[in-house]
Design a protein that fits this description.
The protein starts with a helix and ends with a helix. The chain has 152 residues and is mainly α. It is globular. It has 7 helices and no strands.
């Protein structure tokens, strides 16, 4: 099977997707914790807002950097599912009715990242490849390329 140009760019596109989602998630945490970016700060220790903001800040930063990406994305996704069902759904069934669009989008995009992985531009790859030989790195890259192939 021949790999097309868009197919070769897929690991890089996944990395860029992860970086953007991580940055946006981090911004939500910063806004909630520190009262910047047009938001008022959540009082420290309040349930669930303050804890969600800490998860957004820390998890978003980890996803952005590509450190422990799958775990951070899974925790972030779970926190957004909790936010939607505990906070937003009380106001209405659909996200357009209850203001939960961001929670739903973050939940599903972070879940996608948790299952897809960080892509090739991740700090995890730098840390794990330092002790590996060039052949090990090439072998791992080849396995990732085979894993990312999508049948036509």
């Amino acid at each position: 099977m021949m790999i097309t140009r868009p197919g070769r760019a897929q690991p890089y596109a996944l990395s860029l997707f992860r970086i953007v989602i991580g940055l946006l998630f981090t911004c939500h945490g910063v806004a909630s914790l520190f009262g910047v970016l047009g938001d008022s700060p959540v009082p420290a220790g309040t349930w669930p807002g303050w804890y969600a903001a800490v998860i957004q800040l820390a998890g978003g930063a980890l996803v952005f950097l590509g450190l422990g990406t799958r775990t951070a994305a899974l925790v972030g996704s779970g926190s957004m599912a909790f936010a939607y069902f505990d906070v937003h759904q009380q106001r209405g069934l659909l996200p357009m009715e209850n203001g939960g669009e961001a929670a739903v989008l973050f939940c599903w995009t972070l879940l996608l990242i948790a299952f897809s992985g960080p892509g090739v531009l991740a700090a995890d790859r730098l840390l794990t490849s330092r002790g590996a030989t060039r052949g090990d790195a090439e072998n791992a890259e080849g396995k990732q390329k085979r894993h990312l192939r999508i049948p036509a």
